[in-house]
User: What shape does this take?
Amino acid sequence: MGEKSIQKKQYILEKAKNVFVSKGYKNVTMKDIVEECEISRGGLYLYFESTRELFVEVLKMESQDNDDELTVAISETDTSADILALFLKEQKKELLKRKNQLQVAVYEFFFENYEPKKDNLLRNQFNQAVSVIEKLISEGVENGEFVCTDPLGAARNIMYVLEGMKISAHTMGITEEMVNRELLYIMKGLVEPEE
Assistant: This one.
């Protein structure tokens, strides 16, 4: 694929993201994407065959963007506690963001489409995050920053709490105070209690 084609595909993905953010997943048609991109139907089908294929590519693009942002924010001198705090801070920003979120579309997509375990992008992202958090906790234990006898269990628990808060943010609302309380509880659970 040439540079111009790569740029065109990226343009379509950015525009498609806007449509998925505003309409969710299940209500989006290829016509909606054509209109948002201001291209011909044939021009769109040259790159993508369906809204499903488009959405999966948008999810991959978003995942890469989030990974890149976190990587840039982490320096080699940061401690495990600093990196975990930064990760939780980024999660907080996402939880409190009211606009430009794909979360509703993500849930619609995964409720509507069966994805085998190995191909399930949401599951894979979750498991990757658990793995990174487990490593941070383990390193933090080794460095004396954290006290934890089960880093994998703690990492899974953190991700389940975050996922629950994402759902709560869209179903019953969530405040900054609520997010702060849960994130503080997570961090307190990893720090040795003062005697």
Remarks:
- The longest helix spans residues 51-73.
- The CA atoms of residues 7 and 153 lie 42 Å apart.
